[in-house]
Structure formats: C-alpha cells, structure tokens
Amino acid sequence: MMELLKQYLDITVFSILGFMSFLMIAYTIERYVFFSRLEVSGFDNQHILYVALTRHLTIIASIASNAPYIGLLGTVLGILVTFHDLSQAAELSAATVMLGLAMALKATAAGLVVAIPATLFYNSLVRRTDVLTAHWQSMRKAT
Degrees (nearest 5) of the Cα angle 32, 116, 10? Predict the structure, then answer.
C-alpha cells in the first residue's frame, strides 16, 4: 500500500490541482466574456439578473477554498510516506529527512498557487456582479 501511495501521490495531487486550475480559468474567462457582452437593460427582474450574473461563481469560490486542502492532504500523505521510508532505512540522516519533507511541502505550495488566483478572480467577478446590479437598479429608477 505504501509503495502505491509513494508512486502515485504526486501525480494524483497535481492532477487534481491541475483540473481545478483548468476549471477555474475556464469559468473565469467565461464569466469575463459574459460580463463584457451583457446588456443589463434586457433583464426585467433583478433576481433573474442576479442568477445570470453569479452563474459559475460558486465553482470558482469552491476551488479557491478547497485547493489549499488538496495541497495539504498531499503534504500530509507525503510526510507519512517519508516517515515510513525513514523507519525502514538502516541509517537516519538529516539530509534524508529534510529532502522528504521538502518534497512533501510542494503539494501545499501547489495548492496555494491554485487558490490565490482563484480568490482574486472570484473577488473581481463578485465586484463586477455588484457593479452590474447597481447599474441595472439605477436604470430602473431613471425610468
């Protein structure tokens, strides 16, 4: 079991984070394109406008909040593998321990690399949603 985990841990964690990155980028681009083409005057109901504006934002927010956990899980499992390997080794050296821990921490770093832009994109899109909703409300009051 430990050999299987050792062999596939990195590829699994980085594949999940890569897929999350792909979704985040795809939905972010889709939202920016949608916002650039949107005519708020075409909506008669504020609730329908809100639903249209916030579509896919939950996915981006979920990626932003869960990517660090995926990275942390990879780190914890990497440390587990490192400790297992150390317990099986005849000789214990500080270099071996540090190398194993450094390799395990790359998963957390990757999770943060996914989460930070996702958070920035999500906040930007929420702000754009607020601005478009305010624009719609001001158009309604003017008529």
Answer: 115
Phi then psi for 13, rounded to 5 degrees? -60, -45
Per-residue pLDDT reduced to its tens digit, 55-90: 999 999 999 999 999 999 999 999 998 888 888 877
Helix segments in the chain, DSSP class H: 2-37, 46-54, 57-88, 94-142
Give the single-character DSSP code of 39.
Answer: -
Residues 6+ apart with CB under 8 A from 115: 63, 64, 65, 67, 68
Q: Which residues contact 27 (CB under 8 A, 6 or more apart)?
A: 56, 59, 60
Q: Could you give the angle at which helices 46-54 and 94-142 cross, rounded to 10 degrees?
A: 160
The 10s digit of each residue's pLDDT in 29-57 is 999 999 999 999 999 999 999 999 999 99
For residues 21 and 83, what is the distance between their CA atoms, to the nearest angstrom?
30
